[in-house]
Amino acid sequence: MKQKIALIGCGRISFKHIEAFVALHDTVELVAVCDPILERAEEKKVEYTKSVPISSVKIFDDYKEMLVQCKPDIVTIATESGKHKDIAVHCLKNGSHVICEKPMALSTTDAQEMINTAKKHNKKLGVCFQNRFNAPVVKTRTALEKGRFGKMLHGMVQVRWNRNENYYEQAKWRGTWEQDGGTLMNQCTHGIDLLQWMMGEDAVRVQAQTRRFMRPIEAEDFGCAIIEFASGAVGIIEGTADVYPKNLNETLSLFGTNGSVVIGGLAVNKIETWRFADAEQIGDTEEKVLNPNEKDPPTVYGFGHTALFKDFVDAVVQDREPFVSGEKGKKALEIILAIYKSQKTGMPVDLPCDFSTLEMRGEFDA
Ligand SMILES: NC(=O)c1ccc[n+]([C@@H]2O[C@H](COP(=O)([O-])OP(=O)(O)OC[C@H]3O[C@@H](n4cnc5c(N)ncnc54)[C@H](O)[C@@H]3O)[C@@H](O)[C@H]2O)c1
Question: What is the DSSP letter of 132?
Answer without folding.
Answer: G
